[in-house]
Amino acid sequence: MAIPSYATRGERIWHTVFLGICTLVFLFLVGPLLVIIPLSFNAEPYFTFSEEMLTLDPAGYSLRWYQDFFTSSEWLGAIKNSFIIGIASTLLATVLGTVAALGLSSRHMPARGAIMAMLISPMIVPLIISAAAMFFFFSKINLAQTYLGVILAHTALGIPFVVITVTATLSSFDTTLIRAAHSLGANPTRTFFKVVLPLVTPGVVSGALFAFITSFDEVVVVLFIAGPEQRTMPIQMWSGIREQISPTILAVATLLVLLSMLLLTTLELLRRRGERLRGVSPG
Amino acid sequence: MSHSSSEPLTTADGVPLKVSLRRAVRRSKLKALLLVSPLLAFLVIAFVMPIFDMLWRSVDNPEVSTHLSRTVEALKGWDGESLPEELAFAALVEDLREGQEERNLGLLSSRLNYEKSGMRSAISRTARRAADLEPPFRESLVEAHRAWGELDTWRLIQREARPYTPSYYLAAVDRQVSPEGEIVKVPAHLEIHVALFWRTFWMSAVITGLTLLLGYPIAYLLATLPLRRSNLLMILVLLPFWTSLLVRTTTWIAILQSQGVLNDMMVAIGMIADEARWQMIHNKVGTIVAMTHILLPFMILPLYSVMKTIPPSYMRAARSLGGKPLLSFRRVYFPLTIPGIAAGGILVFILAIGYYITPALVGGQSGRFITNYIAYHMQTSLNWGLAAAIASILLFVVIVFYLIFNRLIGVDKVKLG
């Protein structure tokens, strides 16, 4: 975005203004996330900066909301539920989605467009509609208010992400590598484990991460089909925001922001690894 | 060399090449289908069947025909001009007695109450006394509740004996069937859904416009900066994208509420008086600001991927041919970004009209979406048929936009992160 040497004065001014606008938008994007981090260390039960916080007085800061969080059986139970449901649905979605992606990337897949559209649909249909539909149907077959019901629902929601990422990885997969492996004397099993799998793994893992975060962050479906037994972390936050708004929520929010940073880094590393393995130039 | 043209090519074992090829293709087709089938089967059970069940529920009408089966039978052939014969009244008493014994009249009375107010109390009061009613039932029923003396009640029962009903869809667009059988508007104080549909659409359009306005410069900056620096800035776009929706909504509550960060700041610098804090949350402003923030990455990413493919030499060429900066942008760069605008715009719009969490938490009364009414009818009013009908209408709108999106861009080109 360097300014060309022939730029007029007006253009230079516009360029500066443009950069100013961009800075403001970036601030709008990230600012809110940065505001809540210091707020979560507030010693007072308020959602705003106290006098002491602004003057950087240590008395204005405390870890009480984090302590609240880590000693509350409700929150810990909710985290446990979130992990149980998240991990189970991720495993299911990843296995089903990866196997399906292998079929979808075959050259001879019939009706690919229609099947793909159907596999993606849980991502397109608004969550409230999926939630209502699953509530009606799962109550009929006695799956509402069970762990299995929530896991199946979250698997369905996570599947599109796995299918999209894995098919994308497979589409850039160089099939001559398989022939090369065969010609060098590897049998199909050996080829799959030694050649195909290492190349596809980064795609599968990032698909799994997408599926996990989808389940981990999902409120609406759980709100409708889960019972009190299956209370997850987002549900706990949701009722926290609606009923008794306490800065514990901000502590949880801060932890979740850190989690998403971790996730983002992992995904970026996976992407780079995948590209390096496939010999695609970084970009 | 003549035999190559007259005889078909064969493989080593003498099978014609064409046949052998076709067999191989068929085999790999079958293999591909086999790989996809477990997932398809799973999705049919866990997702497609629930959706169809919901569509079916939005027209399903079993209450009257099951709980008032004798009455419906007795009303067959009734002309609807004057009160039915004693036979129908006796059948009704029989039906209500049975329902009272089995205690399953709740659904029936709510169902009829949607159509004609007062029916809930008519049924429950009559059912409680049904065992003691003496013939002639016509007189004793009318005495038990005056609703049984009204022609409309009987017409209603006769009409709602049908297995399917359009009345949930009518209710979803604030219409009802009048006693005369015509489709009329519901009373003004009950008219909520149409206005909410429109509000959902226009607020989503505003949000889409705002994300475009804010996202376009960012996408342009990211697409034109050198890769190393744009990757760094990309993190600022992806971080909110990856952060929990609830967290992002919570931050806006902390910032915008009347005792929140922004109001405190404005009071501190003397911009507004302490008593005159701005109401920026639990209204339309709250919903629009929070949702613009949440959906902004969905606009930036498609725009960015389109802008990335536009060679910078185009703009240079336009300039060297004498185009002023604004003209070159308008005539050369902007038209090339339209596919990105379409992709981002449709994506954001589809996501926006289906949002439930954010409007529910920061929208208050005036910033609610139609989705909040689906939840309301599911959880509070317990009118599931109506919830299903509203959801089906919304689903239809989403599918139309999705098909347009698919036509323009193709789902398999969706990139994540």
Automatic annotation (TrEMBL), chain A:
Residues 79-267 form the ABC transmembrane type-1 domain. GO terms for cellular component: plasma membrane. Keywords: Cell inner membrane, Cell membrane, Membrane, Transmembrane, Transmembrane helix, Transport. InterPro entries: MetI-like, MetI-like_sf. It comes from Billgrantia gudaonensis. GO terms for biological process: transmembrane transport. It is a multi-pass membrane protein. This is Putative spermidine/putrescine transport system permease protein. The chain crosses the membrane at residues 12-37, 83-104, 116-138, 144-170, 191-213, 248-270. It holds the Pfam family BPD_transp_1. Belongs to the binding-protein-dependent transport system permease family. It is found in: Cell inner membrane; Cell membrane. Its main location: membrane. SUPFAM superfamilies: MetI-like.
TrEMBL record, chain B:
It holds the Pfam family BPD_transp_1. Keywords: Cell membrane, Membrane, Transmembrane, Transmembrane helix, Transport. The keyword rRNA-binding does not apply. CDD domains: TM_PBP2 (cd06261). GO terms for biological process: transmembrane transport. PROSITE patterns: ABC_TM1. It is a multi-pass membrane protein. It is found in: Cell membrane. GO terms for cellular component: plasma membrane. The keyword Membrane applies. Residues 197-405 form the ABC transmembrane type-1 domain. Coiled coil: none annotated. SUPFAM superfamilies: MetI-like (SSF161098). The chain crosses the membrane at residues 32-52, 201-223, 235-255, 285-306, 332-357, 384-405. It comes from the Bacteria. InterPro entries: MetI-like (IPR000515), MetI-like_sf (IPR035906). PANTHER family: ABC TRANSPORTER PERMEASE PROTEIN, INNER MEMBRANE ABC TRANSPORTER PERMEASE PROTEIN YDCU-RELATED-RELATED. Belongs to the binding-protein-dependent transport system permease family. CysTW subfamily. This is Putative spermidine/putrescine transport system permease protein. It comes from Billgrantia gudaonensis.
